[in-house]
Amino acid sequence: MNKGSYYQRHREAELKKQHDRxxxxxxxxxxxxxxxxxxxxxxxxxxxYLPLSSFTRNIGRWDGLEAYCRDCNTxxxxxxxxxxxxxxxxxxxxxxxxxxxxxxxxRQANYxxxxxxxxxxxxxxxLGERHHPDYANGKDIIWLCKKHHxxxxxxxxRIVEPSVV
Length: 165
Hints:
Elements: H1 3-24, E1 40-42, E2 49-51, E3 55-57, E4 65-69, H2 70-83, H3 85-98, H4 100-112, E5 129-131, E6 142-144, H5 146-154
Antiparallel strand pairs: 1-2, 3-4, 5-6
């Protein structure tokens, strides 16, 4: 038996398992196509059928959604934090020790600007988050909505259109 046939059979067996799982969960219609009309999903903790919007995204799962609904996920995370409080404190203290300038700047900004303001980008009327272009002076911040803040950090895009203040 050659090597290719083993891997090919293994792959076919995996695809059959996935197909059977989808069929069991009523995700495949009788003709074999994936059912895109699904509007509800069952939470594995509370066993309720909920709309898909009640589940967070998880690209690692076969359907792209978390197995727990948002409510159950919140309870699960809260229990984990209570159980691992010492670990959470270790992480927080390690971060404070590693980046003392950031912690100081954030404390100053929280004290000086306790209330959120409108996004700095022209034409955007969303409430903003504090952004420090430079941590040397904690009071120098710009306000960016969540969308523009994510664009700045995760996509490495420059923000070039500040509103006239």
